[in-house]
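Hi R.,

Here's the chain you asked about this morning:
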Amino acid sequence: MSLEKHIHWFVTSRCDMSCSYCFKPDAHYDENAERIQELAHVLSSNNVRKVTIGGGEPLLVKNLDNALRILKKEDIYVSLHTNGARLNNNRVSQLSELVNDIALPIDSISESVQQELRGEKSVSVFKKLTELVDKILSKGMKIGYHTVFTAINHQDILEIYDFIKQKDFDYWRIYEFNDDLARTRFLLVKPRNEAEKQRIIQVITKIEQLSRLGTPEKGYTDTLFANFLLMEQHMKKHKDKRIQFVGIRDYSRPNYAFLDNSGDVSFYSWFSYRERRVIGNILRDGFSFVKQKFQELEEKGWEFDDKGEDEFINALYDRPLWARAWDGNYDFEELEEMNGQYYDSFNHLVELYNEREKQLETRPY
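And here is the predicted structure, written out as tokens:
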């Protein structure tokens, strides 16, 4: 994927919710209106075709609409990812002139699960979701949904689908929970006091509950990723191409490009899923330079730089045993730890994973 094809722009790190699975960067984002408009002009003058606006919560940013107008003037496809808390009829009407689609989160139909994953404020947003969707569709915008697949809500996927399919929607992306990115946010924090230290411990404990790492005696057939693949297979019976399961280690997935308000462009790939590394700055280095570096990343993959090789090896062996079995990246001692009663489940996951990797090579993003 070329840089100009699709850029994810994080316009703020601020948010008015506290989702337990969040992996947004905690670094302060300069929300200077002139800087944001300057970045919008750079994107619009370099043939960028799609920009996804996210954060944090992008609707907290003052004068965001001015940047959106700059993008819209050049007919750039704009997707706005919001938690919905600041959407009302008037705001939806304003945005209808500026964005092509609005993506909303939905992690469960159960209010208690919603609250556990995304905080109490998310419940009130969910209660008005149907009304919001009707308003968005009536204004000619498309609707997208995002679900983070965790150990707490993985059994709710079918109910969510039954709910959202009652209205027209353009896409529904179900993301495997990235516990590494979520955990790293807090491991890098130096607590200032005991209370802050205990809070960090509580958050990391919660992240562990969401991730489900699996056990060797079961051949890691009990991991979150195993449930992710099984649910993906189950949902295929609906033959709904709008549904897309996105794994954190999808081998054939193109690299994602992320822009922040300093002008830095970072990337996320299947082999560097634990962090987002900066490859250049579109203001300081120029868009063409960053585009060239991103193209090198696409062509070279993990051989892009010295750090990539270590990331590549770690990514290969960080997969569950059954995901490594089909390409031989395992030790026989690992197989010996598995109880024989799990062989059938193990082999089924090997087949699913192998087939999935083949399909990813041709799947559009």
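One quick note: The mean pLDDT is 91.

Cheers,
M.
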